[in-house]
Amino acid sequence: MDVSHNLEMIQATIQEACGKSKRSPKEINIIGVTKYVTIERTKEALQAGIEHLGENRQEGFMEKYEHFGKQATWHFIGSLQTRKVKEIIDKVDFIHSLDRLSLAKEIDKRSEKTVNCFVQVNVSGEESKHGMKPDQVVPFLEEISKYSKIKVVGLMTMAPHTDDEQVIRGVFRDLAELRNAIKEEHYQHAPCDFLSMGMSNDYHLAIEEGATHIRIGSKLVGS
Ligand SMILES: *Cc1c(COP(=O)(O)O)cnc(C)c1O
Questions:
Q1: CA of 126 to the centre of ligand 1 (A)
Q2: How far is the CA of 215 from the centre of ligand 1 (A)?
Q3: Cβ(179) to ligand 1 under 6 A?
Q4: 105 C-beta closer than 6 A to ligand 1
Q5: Residue 30 pLDDT
Q6: Is there an atom of ligand 1 within 6 Å of 53 CB?
Q7: Is Nuclease given among the entry's keywords (predicted)?
Q8: In sequence order, what are the beta bridge partners of 55?
Q9: How far is CA 175 from the centre of its chain?
Q10: How far is 106 from 98, CA to CA, in rounded Å?
Q11: In this structure, what are the phi and psi dihedrals at residue 129, rounded to the nearest 5 degrees?
Q12: How far is residue 96's CA from residue 217's CA, in Å, rounded to a whole number?
């Protein structure tokens, strides 16, 4: 299917999920995840009107970035090795995988400007998932306030591997509640307005639970 057709279907689903949760579709940012696909297909996504692109590995990110440069807003969504920070830091617009102090320190050291980060949280507790435990997030935010180049714009999570919609929804809801608690702290360096949650199979649930950034690969550009 061409990307513009897929995008229309996704937009219809977004509309419906926003209707159910009394939200505006304008609040929802679609990140086209292009990790599975070619430059050609990525170009199709941009032509269809996708503005945000996401890659989960440094190599894939560099390949796409070198080709498209500032035509897109760039999201790094995969786990990030500390030693790879210097290669991507002046190119990414958002990092979705801030999950440890050593990474915060390296980002602060290597960047010349403020970096928009999401703190990745392992809400489901699955061993295979990256991210910090929910109760570690507030202490982490307090520790990183000394790293002046880091701005925590939101929280990110991955849904657990299950078909149980209630379980998935519960994870998204927990992340939203954590975000709300953080907002009440009014941290200067962590406004935490955004929630990066929801992928091809569960973005409708994520939107109903408050997602502002949905990361869609297979249903948008294919796999
Ligand atoms: C691959 C990936 C996605 C997109 O997955 P789909 O199920 O294909 O939509 C979203 N987020 C992260 C972190 C990913 O690695």
A1: 17
A2: 6
A3: no
A4: no
A5: 98
A6: no
A7: no
A8: 76
A9: 13
A10: 11
A11: -90, 140
A12: 15
Q: Find out whether 132 and 110 touch, Cβ atoms under 8 Å.
A: no
What does the CA dihedral 57, 198, 175, 142 come to, rounded to 10 degrees?
A: 30
Question: What does CATH list as the number for 3-221?
Answer: 3.20.20.10
CA 84 to chain centre: 18
CA–CA gap between residue 107 and residue 197 (Å, rounded): 23
User: Which among 55, 53, 35, 56 has a CA at the least distance from the CA of 45?
Assistant: 53
Q: Which helix (H) or strand (E) holds 115?
A: strand 115-120
Domain spans in the chain, listed from the N-terminal domain onward? 3-221
Residue with tokens 């502002």, as numbered in its chain = 212
Q: Which of 7, 30, 36, 77 to mutate to test the pocket of ligand 1 (most atoms within 8 A of CB)?
A: 77
CA distance 40 to 218: 15
Q: Does the predicted TM-score (pTM) go above 0.85?
A: yes
Ligand 1 centre from 78 Cα, in Å? 9
What residue owns the CA closest to ligand 1's atom 10?
215
> Which residue minimizes the CA distance to atom 5 of ligand 1?
217
Rounded Cα distance between 176 and 154, Å, is 10
The model's pLDDT over 37-93, given as tens digits with 9 standing for 90+, comes to 999 999 999 999 999 999 999 999 999 999 999 999 999 999 999 999 999 999 999
